[in-house]
Amino acid sequence: MTEPIKTPGPDHPITLTREVARVRVLFDGHLLGMSTDVLVLQEADYAPVRYFPRKDIETAFLRPTSKTTQCPYKGTASYFTLYRDGEIVEDAVWSYVHPHPAMAQIAGRLAFYPQHVTFEVEPLASGEVDRVVRHTDSGGGASQEEPWPPTATNPDAPDGPPFRGVGSI
């Protein structure tokens, strides 16, 4: 029998805020992930919980387990065991893959039990840019990290090199 879905309210407040920082999560000194897109969930009188985007975590060190838990406010949590350098911590990480509608923002994100990991928080400076995208001089927005498409046909083809037969060296 599943519990009825409850909505956060004055009797059980839940807030989600974006942490304005670069947050690293480490296990036994090894970096598991780093993100500037961490959501902090504050539920009633519980300790705050950081939820990281899955894309920012090295998921190769996580193995799904059969454990699940139910929260009437958030939904069904699935758990992961953390493996790194021979160290194993069962059910150290959890995720709400399909949370209840009121908690949709945490869908698919990963949270860590703080007794098993270390969080390093580096506040972002005002106006700090997380990613630099280099553009062309034309202002067209094409990144210099990607190959540029040709803007003209090859002047050498199909008749051969330029200036053929004009006496140039």
Explain the overall architecture.
It is a single chain. The protein has 169 residues and is mainly beta. The protein has a domain at 14-123: Domain of unknown function (DUF427) (Metal Binding Protein, Guanine Nucleotide Exchange Factor, Chain A, Beta Complex). The protein has no helices and 10 strands. The protein has strands spanning 14-18, 21-27, 30-35, 39-43, 49-52, 62-71, 75-84, 87-95, 110-112, 118-123. A 7-stranded antiparallel sheet has the order 1-4-5-9-8-7-6, with no helix packed on it. Strands 3-2-10 form a 3-stranded antiparallel sheet, with no helix packed on it. Strand 2 (21-27) and strand 3 form a beta hairpin. The N and C termini lie far apart (88 Å).
Structure, briefly:
0% of the residues lie in helices and 38% in strands.
